[in-house]
Automatic annotation (TrEMBL):
Identification of the protein by name: Uncharacterized conserved protein, Tic20 family
Entry keyword Transcription: no
Entry keyword set: Membrane, Transmembrane, Transmembrane helix
Region of interest (Disordered), ranges: 1-25
Organism: Streptosporangium subroseum
Protein's cellular compartments: Membrane
Taxon lineage: Bacteria, Bacillati, Actinomycetota, Actinomycetes, Streptosporangiales
Membrane-crossing residue ranges in chain numbering: 117-137, 158-176, 182-201
Chain ranges of the DUF1707 domain: 28-79
Annotated membrane topology: Multi-pass membrane protein
Length: 211
């Protein structure tokens, strides 16, 4: 159901390459900002009625799990039609008022902030890595803000579990494990408060296995 649109005069301000990118460009890794910009275009197309729910979910999932530029370009082609290589432009994404989202991935509603905070605080209930994973697979599918915090919390909990397994091998490690988890609980609370305040938070000493 994805329709085509005539490119506007102003360029789409993103780092996603024009269609038919050079092979070396297509293989470059994308940043979170690149993904979020394409997500904004997908949400705008859905709000305009150019995508049905299935198409929206499919393109949103592909955009949020993209690893290289070559993964993002086909999504933009499907939204606006294929463009020849070389100079060109996509229509600018709709404003925050129209899409209901900040273009820089910040939370636009209190619900998003609560969801992001829950990703940090659910481990305090004993859910550990399961809590952030639940938020990632539910609210994180449609909110870049929740996804950002859920991924960070999930990576931290996985790191904590791995460190606990390694520490229990030695007697000294067994003694240090309770201190490790006390520190982890404090950091989870700090992360939750940061998410409620619409801020960014990165856990120290964390292996970021999930992107």
């Amino acid at each position: 159901m994805a329709g085509t649109a005539t490119p506007a005069a102003s360029s789409w301000h993103g780092n996603v390459p024009k269609p038919n990118p050079r092979p070396d460009h297509a293989e470059l890794r994308v940043s979170n900002q690149d993904r979020e910009q394409v997500v904004d275009h997908v949400k705008a197309a859905y709000a305009e009625g150019r995508l049905d729910r299935f198409e929206f979910d499919d393109r949103l999932e592909r955009a949020m799990t993209a690893r290289v530029h070559g993964d993002l370009t086909p999504i933009m082609d499907e939204l606006y039609g294929a463009h020849p290589a070389g100079p060109g432009s996509y229509p600018p994404v709709m404003s925050r008022v129209a899409t209901g989202r900040h273009l820089d991935g910040r939370a636009d509603t209190g619900g998003e902030r609560v969801g992001a905070a829950a990703a940090h605080l659910l481990p305090l209930t004993g859910l550990l890595a399961i809590g952030p994973l639940i938020m990632l697979l539910t609210a994180g599918r449609t909110s870049p803000y929740v996804r950002k915090h859920a991924v960070e919390a999930l990576n931290f909990q996985l790191t904590m579990l791995g460190a606990t397994i390694l520490l229990t091998i030695t007697f000294v490690g067994v003694v240090l494990t309770p201190l490790l988890w006390i520190g982890g609980l404090v950091l989870s609370v700090v992360g939750g408060l940061a998410a409620l305040g619409e801020g960014n938070f990165r856990y120290p000493f964390t292996l970021r296995l999930v992107k």
